[in-house]
Structure formats: structure tokens, C-alpha cells
Amino acid sequence: MKAPIRFILSSGIFLCLAALLTSAMITQWQSSSVLLQGEQNTLRIAAIGNAQLNWTPTIEDWNRHTGRSYTVELAENSITPDHPLKLRMAVRNESPLTATSITLSLRPTPIPGRNPADGEYLFNQLAVTVKQGQTTIAQDIPATQLAHISLPETLISEEYAILDVQIRLTPQHDEEWIDKKTGLEFQFIGTNT
Question: Could you tell me the residue range of the domain that residue 10 belongs to?
Fold first, then answer.
């Protein structure tokens, strides 16, 4: 008779341990409710620019922002290998709560009434330098390679960064660029961080 009692006791102890472990595992679970408020957690950025090198954006400048990318039209002979185009741009995080990292890209835009191939040719002859304060983000790189260049710092809500841009024509052995015209679109992309 002792063997069945030992078996029952050992089985009982095993069942008690299993019940305790199950109970301990169940007590570790909790319900949580999280309120996601999409209206206050949006990601918005704005970009504006000016050809004056000492320009600093004002509230009026930001209020005139159209929500589109910043585009510069290069007129015929507006830049030469000896005279680069210099301009200043600003990009601002308009998100109410979200910090954002910013990347910059440059692409040609067609000019109505002009041959797009001429614009592509001129764009391929351009070199770009971008600085944010004393930090050089891109140094004399071909315009065709200015894609998804990251700004060095994350922008918190309502903070902006000023970029000094220089666009020059690379030295040529011919003067095919003289009658060419293109638009340049500076595209800023924000990623919440």
C-alpha cells in the first residue's frame, strides 16, 4: 500500500507545482491601453530660400511657404565656370510633437518651351557644395549625385536649419552649356525620429 500512496503524493506535489507555475505566469500579464492621437503626431516640414547670402527666414517668410518643394530656375548664362550661383535655404520641422531627421536631394526640372535634353545636359555639368553653418554636408559633388544627403542634426518641433548652397559649372572643353537652361528642385524629406 505504501507504493500507491507515494505515487499519489508525488503526483499531487507535481500538480501543485504545475498550478503554482501556471498561476505565476498568468499574474505576469497586464492589459494596457494606449491612446494614439494622430492629429498631434504628424510629420510636416517646410523649405524656403533666398538668393541673398545674409538672409535669415522671418515669420512672414514661413507664412508664405506654399507646401511645395523649393525650385530655382537657372537662366541662360546665370552661372559660368568662374561665377557660381550662391543661395541660402532654410528647412523647418513644422511637426507639433515629432523630431525629424532631414535629407536633401537635387534634381533637374523641365522648363516649359525648352528642350528637356538641354536641361539634362546642363544639370550634368553642375557641381554643388552645401554647408550648414561651419559643417560641410556636400563638397563640390556632381549635381547628379546630390541625393538623400543627411543634415547633421535632428530638428525638434519648430526648429529650422539654414543651408548655404553654391552651384558651379564644372570646367568644360567646349561651350555647349552656354545656351542651355534648366530648373533645379531642392527636395527635403523628413523622417520622424
Answer: 1-30
